[in-house]
Description:
The protein is α+β, with helices and mostly antiparallel strands.
Amino acid sequence: MSSMVKNRAARMQSLARNPLAIRVALWSQLPLAAFAGLRIRRLEEAGCDVHLPAGWKTQNPFRSTYFAAQAMAAEMSTGAPALFFIEKSGKKISSLVTGLTAKFTKKATQDALFSFVDGAAMQETIARAVATGEAQLFTAKSIGTQKDGTVIAEFEITWSFKLKSKQ
């Protein structure tokens, strides 16, 4: 892996860990996530944790966290590592969410953390997309838990990764 590729991946990790930098990046790239207050708490080879605050910005009329806000946090917990692994590969790879399923297990009334922990398998899928030149699917699981450890939701987000053709 070239030092330029390592630097780009390291910069992405550094950005995710810097509260001011990630806010600026979110407002410029994902303003809805920024408005909701999503924050990346961990981004590493193993996976990613995304914090979803409870409160008026993410609340539904029933005084619990709106399902779409939960979906946004779950997607970010799988999308941030996808982008990190793509940067790390040094290749031009397209990524696209092709499916999403959700199971809501408990009413969400507190801050939540959405965690994706299968970074190795995602990275292998991206490497396979590079090696074969064919689109590869990966289903990433993100589990949402409240501060007290209660599981509130389980998401499965299917990603398609494909090496971009030379233009």
